[in-house]
Specification:
This protein is α+β, with helices and mostly antiparallel strands. The chain is built from 4 helices and 4 strands; from the N terminus they run αβααβββα. The chain has a domain of 69 residues. It has a two-stranded parallel sheet.
């Protein structure tokens, strides 16, 4: 077994070190630069502020951490409205976000809240 392994390693080294690789010369890359400005050109280059990673109670990890807000609450928060925080206080941003996305996990989506509601209403 040891001699077979040595033979395989020797073959791999020999094949990886040979000089039979042919390199073809490629044509240089050309990039066409457009000098005209687009209709939406903005010389100020505005910065926009947002959040693309927001979890609500529909995500398992957020729910077990005490988050009880819905996707509607998250969008209201993004628009500048106040929503309840895990601490029990209302939170609100100074200004609305320019963009946002609720990115709840697909696994177990809304499973825990619905399970708890079914237990409450069955009793």
């Amino acid at each position: 077994m040891k001699s077979h392994l040595s033979l395989v390693i020797a073959c791999l080294c020999w094949f990886s070190c040979n000089d039979r690789i042919e390199y073809k010369e490629a044509a240089p890359l050309t990039t066409k630069v457009h000098q005209k400005q687009t209709t939406s050109y903005n010389p100020s280059k505005n910065a926009y502020f947002g959040d693309l990673h927001i979890h609500t109670s529909w995500s398992f990890d957020a729910f077990v951490s005490g988050v009880r807000t819905s996707p509607d609450d998250a969008y209201r928060y993004g628009k500048g409205e106040s929503i309840p925080h895990v601490s029990g206080k209302e939170i609100q941003m100074n200004r609305p976000l320019d963009f946002m996305a609720v990115s709840d996990h697909a696994e177990y989506m809304n499973l825990i809240p619905n399970f708890l509601l079914s237990i409450i209403f069955e009793s």
